[in-house]
Amino acid sequence: MPVFIEYIPAEPEPGNLYISMQFETAVHLCACGCGSKVVTPFGPHDWTLAFDGTVSLRPSVGNGQQQCRSHYYVRSDRIDWLPRISAATSRVASSRDRAAHVEAIPQPLGGQASWWRRIWNRMRRSSGTG
């Protein structure tokens, strides 16, 4: 059952999907009942949340790091089970997810930023804003 809240509780209750739009994340206990906390951040390289009176998460939730290895979709407030996720599939998914979050820093032609860009970047770093 979806629960829209600002802050995720420290001890989630089974069967609830806690959704914090302010912090762009959802948390629930693993649907298999093992008790593992599952965190699904929202973002272009993470999960998306659809709400049409019911809640759906995309992509699937694969608990490959947990002993249960459960794998499922959250669709229209219910769990649609998939086959358990294998260790190999879990490693591939983790690598793909990490790579998607690494942002390449664009380099200007010639490989070095202009003198004013280097000064600006140094000022931002020293002021704690960059």
Q: Keywords for this structure?
A:
4-stranded antiparallel beta sheet, extended, alpha+beta, 130 residues
Number of helices: 2
Backbone shape: extended
Structural domain count: 1
The sequence of SSEs as H and E is EEEEEEEEHH
Sheet with the most strands? Answer: 4 strands, mixed
User: What would you report as the Rg, rounded to the nearest angstrom?
Assistant: 20 Å
Oligomer: single chain
The proportion of residues in beta strands is: 25-35%
Number of strands: 8
Share of helical residues: 10-25%
Q: Look at the structure and give the mean pLDDT.
A: 85
- Separation, N- and C-terminal Cα atoms: 39 Å
* Uncertain segments: none
Q: What is the structural class?
A: alpha+beta
Biggest sheet, spatial arrangement of strands: 1-2-3-4
